[in-house]
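Researcher: Let's walk through a ligand-bound prediction step by step. First, I give you the protein sequence. Second, the SMILES string for magnesium ion. Third, you return the three-dimensional complex as structure tokens. Ready?
Model: Ready.
Researcher: Here are steps one and two:
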Amino acid sequence: MSLDNSLKRFGIMCGSSPAMERLAQQVERVAATDATVLLVGESGTGKELIAKAIHQMSARAQETFIAVNCGAIPAHLIEAALFGHEKGSFTGAVKQHIGYFEHASRGTLFLDEITEMPVDMQVKLLRVLECGTFMRVGGDEEVKVDVRLIAATNRDLESAVKQGNLREDLMYRLAVFPVRVPPLRERGSDIELLANHFLDVLNEKENCDKKFSPASLEVIRSYSWPGNVRELKNVVQRAFILATDTLEVEEYISDLSNRKPTLHEGYLNFFVGTPLAEAQREIILATLKHYSGNKRLTAEALGISLKTLYNRLKEY
Ligand SMILES: Nc1ncnc2c1ncn2[C@@H]1O[C@H](COP(=O)(O)OP(=O)(O)O)[C@@H](O)[C@H]1O
Ligand SMILES: [Mg+2]
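Model: Step three, the predicted complex:
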């Protein structure tokens, strides 16, 4: 099942690169279940969008979807925010309050930046996942909920566990179905596709027909997009506002030194001014990849000795 007839059907995710096709397959498979999902990927890669897609493709689609950014709630408020509180449970608790878990009942709860959740809260979260019950703050009655949980993090799981930001037991419980969301720079021609998608949406909305300049398209293709889809969307929006007919994106890209050579269908694209050492490295690695790791063929194609190739590879 490809993006075209799954995620895209919901009008929310664009992409046709192999990386996104794989993701779409995983999403579709997991959406049909009630399993807890852990989305791992850099900031701006579309984790929240994917969580929504999973919800919309699931049997819970007609129920509530709630997204909570764990990093945005002060540590002392998070328990009440998630589980609610009883009247009089603390100063200012003038009436009973229902938390996100109860609000998302029968639906899906998306917990973003899960490693920002205080560790003692992680224990309580694990308990809900195991038993499906919790207590409101200041309450003594078990509340039972049926919530599908999707969690996300932009951190490497192992190091988050090592550094004490994520409990190992919670990680294993969340990672029943881990889904890696690829950074934009690994999505090849999707970058251009997304840029055009964002431009189309703006053209439609503003009822105009603006276009990217050829130079802009070149920059869009070759920039490494450290801020991923979010950065691309922002850049397109900003360039759109100032353009009369033609979008010039260059000045909105924060760090042009991030422009990396790109490999696309057997062609390497370099920016004028790419350091020679970097160009050499990219050519060697791309050629080695082209010959499926065969060093003899690679050295022959590059016109260097096998020994030189070995030396270079050792350096890299
Ligand atoms: N594949 C995609 N197609 C269209 N829009 C996308 C896609 N991925 C991300 N976006 C958009 O990019 C922005 C960032 O996505 P978001 O889901 O908030 O990322 P994350 O949660 O990983 O930081 C949002 O505006 C989202 O709508
Ligand atoms: Mg997010």
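Researcher: And what stands out?
Model: The chain has 13 helices and eleven strands. The mean pLDDT is 90.
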